TrEMBL record:
Domain of life: Bacteria
InterPro entries: RNA_pol_sigma-70-like (IPR039425), RNA_pol_sigma-70_dom (IPR014284), RNA_pol_sigma70_r4_t2 (IPR013249), RNA_pol_sigma_r2 (IPR013325), RNA_pol_sigma_r3/r4-like (IPR013324), WH-like_DNA-bd_sf (IPR036388)
Family: Belongs to the sigma-70 factor family. ECF subfamily.
Domain RNA polymerase sigma factor 70 region 4 type: 129-178
UniProt keywords, alphabetically: Sigma factor, Transcription, Transcription regulation
CDD domains: Sigma70_r4
Presence of the UniProt keyword Metal-binding in the record: no
Keyword Transcription regulation among record annotations: yes
Organism from which the protein derives: Dysgonomonas termitidis
Protein name per the record: RNA polymerase sigma factor
Length: 200
């Protein structure tokens, strides 16, 4: 693969647009940038590592062979995440388990970054706080926080991924924030989480 050009592309949309316009090498960049996003999300949904890898591989093969699957540059990321979610649900159905969107047991898989905090006691206190904040949230509340604050998605994008109406997405996030604040009593708790956790 050729080295990046001077005008470095840094979004999925840029790489995808280059690919559909004939730059086949751009697909490798599109794949590389999208892979980690989808892997993290798939693991959060509860799949094992090989299942996630197989699903991601299948999604990108389908896109490479049929670029018409994406018809809007602004919905690429939601399309990819929704594809992972739907594939997960299909796996559950084939395993004869009754699974719907309400039953996805989403977990925020993370490690806590505390290198800037030298005091060990403060580090442990921060870890406990974040653990307690997340422990009171339902799987769907964790998922919407993940999509809204980690991936900075708007409500329309979240609605596409989680099969919710825009208002339902707003209500779900509001309940999540309210519930977390009641547990921690800190208005900046979500900023705290975003600054000090590394999603993997």
């Amino acid at each position: 693969m050729s080295p990046p050009s001077v005008n470095k592309k840094d979004t999925l949309s840029d790489y995808w647009l280059s690919f559909v316009n004939g730059d086949k090498e751009a697909f490798a960049d599109f794949y590389n940038q999208g892979y980690n996003i989808l892997y993290s999300y798939g693991m959060g949904l509860g799949m094992d590592s090989q299942q996630v890898r197989d699903i991601i591989q299948d999604i990108f093969i389908r896109l490479y062979t049929n670029s018409d699957l994406i018809n809007d540059l602004y919905t690429i990321k939601p399309f990819l995440l929704r594809s992972v979610r739907n594939a997960f649900l299909n796996i559950k159905k084939t395993e004869n388990r009754h699974t719907d969107f309400e039953q996805i047991n989403f977990e925020l898989r993370y490690s806590i970054i505390t290198d800037d905090i030298e005091d060990t006691e403060k580090q442990e206190h921060l870890k406990l706080r974040i653990k307690n904040i997340l422990s009171v949230l339902t799987p769907r509340q964790k998922e919407i926080i993940y999509l809204r604050f980690i991936h900075q998605m708007d409500y329309e994008e979240i609605s596409q991924i989680m099969s919710l109406s825009g208002q339902a997405a707003r209500n779900l996030l509001h309940r999540a924030i309210t519930k977390a604040r009641e547990n921690d009593n800190n208005k900046d708790l979500l900023i705290l989480i975003i600054l000090f956790i590394h999603i993997h």
